[in-house]
Design brief:
Length: 318
């Protein structure tokens, strides 16, 4: 593996992958390998759910039909696996979401921003604003892809799901999480200690001058989730605030991680020939396990057989 010098504006998921496993990082971000069929129905469920919530929070609850159409379009080219996780299942979940939150007491509403303010904002180096701006020049922050200068040394690529204003007037960044399992304490703990939300808060501050915390908007998409009569917990919102010290720490983490990705040590780690490197639980869920398990000399052939080559520099949306 050559040195990774493409880290002009890395995403959080890219930097986090480096800490998970530098070999997986190299496969994904330097070689650009995507395992064929990695679009599992579960990830399609998340993608369809995000598109539906984006529509509902942008256009209002009455846009249900448009949200449903997005779900149909995303599922139309894939066979469901497991078979109960279908477009109909996801539409049922979205119906329950509307039932749960569509009233005036919902704790937050999306923030409308002025497109001009974003375009003139020197900290926003790139945004996919086009197509989002209303006739009055306003737009709502929904899954917007941006490159933001977080401090004088660090630019990052971020996709903010939503910026919202709560009833008390504070501004929060909200992140939708569609999960196959209920969120246990372990997952929540990892979410809180991850640097993703602190970095999003810092980006939101660059964008609108303020941001008080992060909301995890959790949607469970298990088998009983689309049944309105089911008593299972389907939706939860968790509110996290961070100290200024924790935000500072996230910036330092990102800068250090980027340096580490570019280092000789990282390239050396990737090129070591033993495999897999973490033969415990982490490797068992990895997209590259098949590849790690074959001898290095056999890998080039297997790559063509099992993987698609994605643009190495494409960042994962989060
Ligand atoms: S199988 Fe294990 S060692 Fe190989 S890339 Fe995945 S996590 Fe890393």
């Amino acid at each position: 593996m050559k040195l990774d010098s493409t880290l002009e504006a890395p995403s959080h998921s890219r930097l986090a992958k480096l800490h998970d496993c530098r070999r997986a990082y190299g496969y994904r971000y330097v070689m650009g390998l995507r395992s064929r069929g990695s679009q599992s129905t579960k990830s399609l469920g998340g993608k369809a759910g995000h598109a539906a919530l984006d529509t509902l929070h942008r256009l209002g609850w009455e846009a249900r039909e448009i949200a449903d159409n997005h779900i149909d379009a995303i599922f139309s080219e894939h066979v469901s696996n497991p078979e109960w996780l279908t477009a109909e299942h996801m539409k049922g979940i979205i119906g329950n979401y509307i039932e749960r939150y569509a009233d005036e007491d919902d704790d937050f509403r999306r923030l409308r921003l002025n497109a001009d303010d974003v375009l003139k904002n020197e900290a926003v180096l790139y945004s996919d604003l086009a197509g989002r701006v209303a006739d009055d020049g306003s737009f709502s922050m929904n899954e917007m892809n941006m490159v933001v200068q977080l401090d004088d040394k660090l630019k990052m690529t971020l996709v903010l799901d939503m910026l919202v204003e709560r009833k008390d007037g504070t501004v929060w960044v909200a992140d939708h999480k569609f999960t196959a399992q209920y969120l246990g304490q372990g997952v929540l703990g990892r979410y809180i200690t991850s640097k993703q939300m602190p970095l999003y808060i810092l980006a939101a501050r660059k964008l609108v001058g303020r941001c008080d915390g992060a909301i995890l908007n959790a949607v469970w998409m298990g088998q009983a989730a689309c049944n309105p009569a089911s008593k299972a917990t389907k939706f939860d919102r968790y509110y996290f605030d961070y100290t200024e010290g924790q935000l500072e720490e996230a910036l330092e983490w990102a800068a250090l991680s980027r340096g580490r990705a570019q280092s000789e040590t990282n390239a050396f780690g990737f090129n070591m020939e033993y495999w897999p490197q973490n033969p415990s639980s982490y490797c068992s869920g990895c997209d590259y396990l098949q590849l790690c398990e074959v001898a290095p000399a056999m890998r080039p052939g297997r790559i063509t057989q099992w993987y698609d080559l994605a643009e190495a520099e494409v960042e994962d949306a989060e």
